C-alpha cells in the first residue's frame, strides 16, 4: 500500500510541477482512456503451458507539457491482468475442452514521459506502480453439448500487493481530442509472495483509445 501511495505521490508531484512550468499556450489537459489488454504471466514452474489472456484497462490521465516537445502523463487505471491455460482431449469419442484463467485486478499508476515527435504522434516510456485489488481463477469446461463455468476467489495474502513495471509505447491523435494508443509494460516484481521458485511477472500489451477534454 505504501508503494502505491508513492506512485500517487509521484502523480501529485507531477501535477504540482506542471502548475509552475506550463503556460496558457500549453495548458495541462485531462482525459479518459480505455482499451484491450493482452496479458501473460512469465513462465514459472507451474505455468509452463500458460498463454495470453484478453482483458481490459480503463481510467483517467493528465497530460502535462514541460517543454515544446516533451510532456509527462500520469494516469490512474484499472488493469485486468493474468494468463490463460487451455487443454483439449478426447474420451470415448467425446471432445473435452478445459480453459482456466488467472485474473489479477490492479489499480495502476503509470507515469509516462512523452516525446511529441509531431503535434499528433508521440513516443513514451516510464514506470508503472500497481496495487492488487482482486484475484480469482475462472474455469470453463465444455464437451460436445454442454458448457459449465465457475469462478473461484483466491487468497490475496498469497500474492504480492505491489506490482512494478516499465512501460514503452506510442500514440497518434487523429484530432486534437481523440487518439489511439499502444503500450507494452514489462513487470519487474514477482506476482507471488514468498515465492521459492522462478519469479512470475506480469507482462501486458495494451491498445486503446484516449480522449482529451479541451
UniProtKB/TrEMBL annotation:
InterPro entries: Beta-barrel_OMP_2 (IPR025665), OMP/PagP_B-barrel (IPR011250)
Signal sequence annotation: 1-18
Superkingdom of source: Bacteria
Keyword Signal attached: yes
Residue ranges occupied by any Outer membrane protein beta-barrel domain in the UniProt entry: 17-192
Record keywords, A-Z: Signal
UniProt entry tagged with the keyword Lyase: no
Protein name: Opacity protein
Organism: Chryseobacterium piperi
Amino acid at each position: 500500500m505504501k508503494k502505491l501511495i508513492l506512485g500517487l505521490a509521484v502523480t501529485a508531484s507531477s501535477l504540482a510541477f506542471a502548475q509552475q512550468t506550463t503556460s496558457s499556450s500549453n495548458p495541462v489537459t485531462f482525459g479518459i482512456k480505455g482499451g484491450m489488454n493482452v496479458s501473460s504471466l512469465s513462465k514459472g514452474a507451474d505455468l509452463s503451458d500458460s498463454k495470453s489472456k484478453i482483458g481490459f484497462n480503463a481510467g483517467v490521465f493528465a497530460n502535462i507539457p514541460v517543454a515544446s516537445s516533451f510532456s509527462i502523463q500520469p494516469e490512474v487505471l484499472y488493469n485486468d491482468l493474468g494468463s490463460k491455460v487451455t487443454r483439449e482431449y478426447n474420451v470415448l469419442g467425446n471432445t473435452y475442452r478445459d480453459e482456466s484463467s488467472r485474473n489479477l485486478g490492479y489499480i495502476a499508476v503509470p507515469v509516462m514521459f512523452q516525446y511529441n515527435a509531431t503535434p499528433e504522434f508521440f513516443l513514451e516510456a516510464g514506470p508503472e506502480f500497481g496495487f492488487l485489488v482482486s484475484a480469482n481463477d475462472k474455469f470453463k469446461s465444455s464437451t460436445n453439448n454442454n458448457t459449465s463455468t465457475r469462478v473461484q476467489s483466491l487468497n490475496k495474502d498469497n500474492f504480492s500487493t505491489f506490482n512494478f513495471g516499465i512501460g514503452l509505447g506510442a500514440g497518434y491523435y487523429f484530432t486534437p481530442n481523440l487518439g489511439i494508443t499502444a503500450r507494452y509494460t514489462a513487470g519487474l516484481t514477482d506476482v507471488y509472495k514468498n515465492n521459492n521458485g522462478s519469479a512470475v511477472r506480469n507482462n501486458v500489451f495494451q491498445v486503446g483509445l484516449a480522449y482529451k477534454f479541451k
